[in-house]
Amino acid sequence: MQINITARHLKLTDAIGSYVRKKVSKASKFYDGDDVWAHVILSVEKSRQITEIIFHVGKLAFRVKEQSLDLYASVDLSVDKLEKQLRKQKEISKIHRKKNLKAAKDKKADLDAFSYDSMEDSGTKISEVKRFDLKPRTINEAIEDLDVLGYRVYMFLNEQTDSVNVLYRNDSGSIVLLEPEI
Question: Where do the Sigma 54 modulation/S30EA ribosomal protein C-terminal domain residues begin and end (predicted)?
């Protein structure tokens, strides 16, 4: 994990630098990888020692800022606060991951119940599934759509009966209307 340290109004000694690196690198127990890095800003304002940590995990950024009379104490407070934020985010990620796994498992179970690929006979195999919105039409409008769009089969929602109907041309060229009876 890359850790960049910036010192404002103080001299960054090796001891302070190694202490900050040691403390901040503990936070990598929550997230690790190439896209994890931290920027630590140490500053002094009058008697206050301020530590600000910006911790980046991919597209996420966590920011903490603490102050104390002692620089080491402000680093400890900031790291504690950062770990709390990272722990909370990790828990949220676990919960979302469990929900997504459960949803994916449910979806897979639904797909396993029926699979188009499991149909061996090419005469009964469904090669394509088309989904579309049913438009409410009168029978005359549906016949016009059948002719204008050049479809062999046209499914529509009959405005008069409020049921799904199908139009198709038979081999003699005449139009057949299918009305389901339930």
Answer: 124-175
- The torsion of the CA quartet 132, 137, 140, 143, rounded to 10 degrees, works out to 0
Q: Within this chain, do residues 92 and 16 fall inside the same structural domain, yes or no? A: yes
Amino acid at residue number 31? Y
pLDDT tens readout for residues 120-178: 665 677 777 878 778 788 999 888 888 878 788 889 899 988 889 999 988 888 899 99
Q: 10 is in which domain, residue-wise?
A: 2-102
The domain tally of the chain equals 2
pTM above 0.90, yes or no: no
Helices (H), the chain: 14-25, 71-113, 139-149
Structure tokens at 180: 């389901």
The residues facing 65 across adjacent strands are 52
Counting Cβ atoms within 10 Å, is residue 71 exposed (0-12), middle (13-18) or buried (19+)? buried
* CA 23 – CA 65 distance, rounded (Å): 15
